[in-house]
Amino acid sequence: MSKKILIISQHFYPEIGSAGNRMKNIYSMLQNSDLAVNILTTDPTYPVRNLYSDKSFWDDEELNVDTENIHRVSVRNKKYSRSIMNRLYYYIEITLKMIWFILRSKKNYDMVFATSPPIFIGIVGLIAKIRFRSKFILDIRDLWPESLKGVNVFNFPPIIYLFKQVEGMLYKSSDKILINSKGFYNYIESISPNFKRKIVYIPNSAKSEEVFPVNLSSGRDFKVIYAGNIGLAQNDKLLIDLAKELNKKHIKMTIIGYGLKRKGLLEDIKKEGLTNVHVVPPLTRNECFKLISQHQVGIVTLVNSDVFKTVLPGKIVDYMTCGVPIVASVSGFSKEIINREKVGYVSETNVTGMIDFIDYLYRNPEKRYEQGMNGQRYVREHFLWEDNINILIDTINEVFNEKSLSKVGRYE
Which sequence ranges are marked TM in the entry (predicted)? Predict the structure, then answer.
């Protein structure tokens, strides 16, 4: 009989963004294995609920009709908010409704797979583990609550302390800890060396069909792009300063943006009279990749904070998938990947340095081609879901085998 797995995730198809795409691929590919998989998620609300009234985002008919295995809880909140209290209410509402679903469930599961952030989903996963007496895999896509401190949005010591205690409890209660960035290793191990044996690296990835041919165009077609979240971690001030300098050089910039700071960025673009900037509303993943591939440089910015030295933003993987060289203001693990694999250039929080690198790529199309090819090579070797899902399946089987072995006294 197939093992039964319950995935618990706030984000899922058809939501845009790295989290939704990660969980869509994990769910769909596990379904195609010999595992029986259900998912508990929400109605799509990120970045705003109204976006999903557009049927083009519901482009996977197999998932559209899968009402037996996909369970969604409704959320009253209309959209994300910068207000901490509003966001907290949003998380608590989701948490309570998911817990209620779990307590009322007539099904039993052999394994619970919960993905965080927010940390509340990890709590739901732990409750589900207890309720079903199952194994527990915890998927960590970002360090929470460290990321809250990193963006200076919420740094109330007693609450941060409480969240850190919950974080440690979740790591301790899990059978395996998945991470999407190798930068998380040292942080998790610093909480307890015992967690090291649990950690498995499965990065955000692409499908092989999404790897676009590298675009080698002349200088007159040169355009740069920023694609993805414009939130508290993305350094929107640096992004607008970069757009101003590009405007002076008559270089076009496209922004496919969403998130808390999108509105403010639009206002700044209008205020500065930046006619070189074209802002595009959120697109489906396929549409986004097609547009990215028509550009010659992909921009990445992050706030200068220690916690963001551990992350690998999804847009870095996306740019490499599309064969687009990267010019970034990042540090830590992201910087290491970009420099080591020769897929672009990094200038930490330095607009002048970023402009110099963009100008160099403008004048050297052969270097753009080389870096684009390097990116796609690295994606094929390390960032394909067709390969990385096997790591997850092996991890799941390992956990089940450990459970079986423990029954006969081999793990005491």
Answer: 111-128
- Residues 42 and 181 reside in one and the same domain: yes
Residue 412 lies in a domain: no
Q: Which domain holds residue 168?
A: 4-205+384-407
Residue-wise burial string across 97-109, b where 16 or more C-beta atoms lie within 10 A, e elsewhere: bbbebbeebeeeb
Give the position of tokens 């992350």.
Answer: 311
Residue 214 φ/ψ, nearest 5 degrees: -70, 135
Report the alpha-carbon distance of residue 281 to residue 348 in Å, rounded: 28
**Domain annotation covers residue 114:** yes
| pLDDT (tens digit per residue) in 212-268 | 888 776 556 899 999 999 987 888 899 999 999 999 999 999 999 888 888 899 999
Strand order in the sheet with 135-140: 70-73, 36-42, 4-8, 111-116, 135-140, 176-179, 199-201
Clarify whether residues 200 and 213 are in a common domain. Answer: no
> Which stretches does DSSP call E strand in 9-143?
36-42, 70-73, 111-116, 135-140
Residues 380-408: pLDDT tens digits? Answer: 999 999 999 999 999 999 999 975 433 33
Q: How far apart are CA 401 and CA 411, in angstroms?
A: 11
